[in-house]
Design brief:
The chain contains 15 helices and 11 strands. It is of the alpha/beta class. A 7-stranded mixed sheet has the order 3-2-1-4-7-5-8, sandwiched between helices. A two-stranded parallel sheet has the order 6-9.
Length: 375
């Protein structure tokens, strides 16, 4: 059985090492959620719109009613036809970009136009996605870390709370929540475009507009600009953003392939690490299951040792998300179990997503096809 232990040992080591940072993550999240921000600089919140999202009217209304003393909301679109009727809040500023750069994504061009149209006195730019419904404390949570030295940007993340919770919608939530493990007490690996903020001074000093040229990914480009400036990205758990969208099996696999294709092109190091880890995990799980079925009892113990840490981390992610989103406590009471029980399945889905994106260099988003290239 030497071959078996040579195969399984790295996966067991990774699984156990993955538990080491969970205590620090809990401590960090609880500290961030309990902190009371000091001075809250004036802000501009920017949300691009491209057609109708599930609950779009309510999502924009949430952005228009944030608990923040001084901010403006900019709703930006390529053209007026991209904004469905009856969804705009009363006091939102509307910006139409009419971008025509074939090498830059439409969303990025929209954001560029919105930044140019932002009011002069705003000190913070915050970015949201139209398919998320922020809580009232969302902007306060994003603004707080920006007061700290060496923090270049702050980021929240999404949490899928599909209602009703169909199987594929739950699987997407479990799969997607794994990325929260890259956000925590240390310098986060990326900022997520649906909940990220940056000081205006930093935005221009770090040359974010230059990094946005010839790219489709606004958040990976902003993250690269912040890192290149020698600054960090701080996770703001209070900016966790509920997303209600449901999807079918086919839509789910197209969605995860698109997410990983974007990651492979714009953050290839993170993609390679993910691929290596999931090849090890899935190979070890398969080997352990086979030898256990054949009567080798230590194989069953090894399989449990691989699965239990991941299931615990999934449960822990859901528990922390529940603390960040007390308004959705009833949803967590009904569905938090999925983040533990479905975690082993999500590991295999991650492998499928990573492998399927290995040779892809184009994505389809909102009816347009983009060929991706590193700037």
């Amino acid at each position: 059985m030497l071959w078996y232990w040579l195969l399984v040992s790295p996966a067991l080591l990774l699984a156990l090492l993955g538990l080491l940072g969970e205590g620090k993550r809990v401590e960090y999240v609880l500290r961030r959620l309990s902190e009371i921000p000091g001075v809250l600089p004036s802000a501009t919140v920017i949300v691009p719109v491209k057609g109708d999202d599930e609950g779009l009217r309510e999502n924009l209304a949430a952005l228009a009613s944030l608990d923040y003393p001084d901010y403006e909301l900019i709703v930006v679109a390529h053209s007026a036809s991209d904004i469905p009727p009856g969804v705009l809040p009363r006091h939102a500023k509307i910006v139409l970009a009419h971008g025509a750069d074939p090498n830059t994504g439409e969303k990025v061009q929209n954001l560029q136009a919105a930044v140019r149209a932002a009011r002069k006195r705003s000190e913070i730019f915050a970015f949201a996605d139209s398919d998320g419904r922020p809580t009232r404390a969302w902007l306060r949570a994003l603004a707080a870390p920006l007061a700290e030295s060496n923090v270049g940007a702050s980021t929240g993340y999404r949490w899928f709370v599909p209602q009703p919770a169909t199987f594929w919608s739950l699987i997407r939530g479990v799969w997607d929540a794994v990325a929260l493990g890259r956000l925590g007490a240390r310098n986060s690996d990326f900022a997520w475009g649906g909940a990220m903020a940056i000081r205006k001074e930093t935005f221009f000093a770090a040359r974010v507009p230059e990094f946005w040229k010839n790219t489709v990914s606004d958040d990976y480009a902003l993250s690269a600009a912040v890192r290149a400036a020698g600054l960090t990205i701080a996770f703001a758990p209070g900016a966790l953003t509920p997303c209600f969208e449901r999807l079918t099996c086919a839509q789910f696999f197209r969605w995860i392939r698109r997410q990983m294709t974007i990651t492979r092109v714009y953050n290839s190091r993170l993609w390679r690490l993910g691929l290596l880890a999931h090849v090890l995990y899935c190979a070890a799980m398969t080997a352990s299951a086979i030898v256990f079925i054949e009567g080798y009892t230590p194989g069953g113990i090894a399989l449990a040792t691989q699965l239990i840490p991941g299931m615990y981390k999934g449960w822990n992610r859901a528990a922390l998300a529940r603390r960040a989103l007390p308004e959705y406590d009833s949803w967590f009471r009904r569905h938090a179990w999925a983040h533990a029980v479905f975690n082993p399945l999500a590991t295999w889905v991650w492998l499928i997503a990573l492998v399927s994106s290995a040779t892809s260099s184009s994505i389809e988003w909102r009816g347009r096809r983009y060929r991706l290239r590193r700037a």
